[in-house]
Amino acid sequence: MASDNMSDLAKMVLCAFLGFAAVADAVVAVFFYVRSKNKYENYLKTEGVVSGVKFENGSRGKLVYPILKFQLGGKEYETRNQYGKSPWNIQRGTEVDIVYDMDDPNRAEIENKLLQFLLPIMAAAGAVMAFAAAVVVWFFVPM
């Protein structure tokens, strides 16, 4: 009888932990979604070209940062992409869609919707998986 109580307690603790993880992941997903949405709320889209590439050392080796060139209102801008990747097979002269901060066009990057919303998607997926695991444990795992 005591072992039944212990297994019920273990099941409840595990479900509580998974439920907490689901809620925490959901909060993280909302945080990153709002942060990304707010960041790009002030951004506009234009077309440009990669005028060169810059290499910088990162924690995982050399990162490739495209140098972007574009025109706005007759003024030409040339700035380093806000994020780097490794490897990144991008060539000089490649035409790209660029998003830039309308208050500071030097804050520009190649448009990448997946990168903009990758963290919220991953956190939301974690929330769904943790919730599903809690349901499975609660209803289908005998203890």
Report on this structure:
This protein has 143 residues and is of the alpha+beta class. It has a domain at 43-117: OB fold (Dihydrolipoamide Acetyltransferase, E2P) (Beta Barrel). It contains two helices and five strands. It has a five-stranded antiparallel beta sheet. α1 (2-41) runs antiparallel to α2. It is elongated, with a radius of gyration of 23 Å.
Topology:
Blueprint lengths: L1 H40 L1 E16 L2 E12 L2 E6 L14 E7 L2 E7 L2 H28 L3
Antiparallel strand pairs: 1-2, 1-4, 2-3, 4-5
Helix pairs in contact: 1-2
Sum up the structure in keywords.
single chain; 143 residues; alpha+beta; OB fold (Dihydrolipoamide Acetyltransferase, E2P); 5-stranded antiparallel sheet; 5 strands
Counting DSSP H or I runs of 4 or more residues, the number of helices is: 2
Q: Structural class, please?
A: alpha+beta
Rg over C-alpha atoms, rounded to the nearest angstrom: 23 Å
Strand element count: 5
Helix content range:
40-55%
Spans of at least 5 consecutive residues with low confidence: none
CATH class of one domain: Mainly Beta
Order of helices and strands: HEEEEEH
What would CATH call the architecture of one domain? Beta Barrel
* Biggest β-sheet description: 5 strands, antiparallel
N-to-C terminal Cα separation, in Å?
A: 12 Å
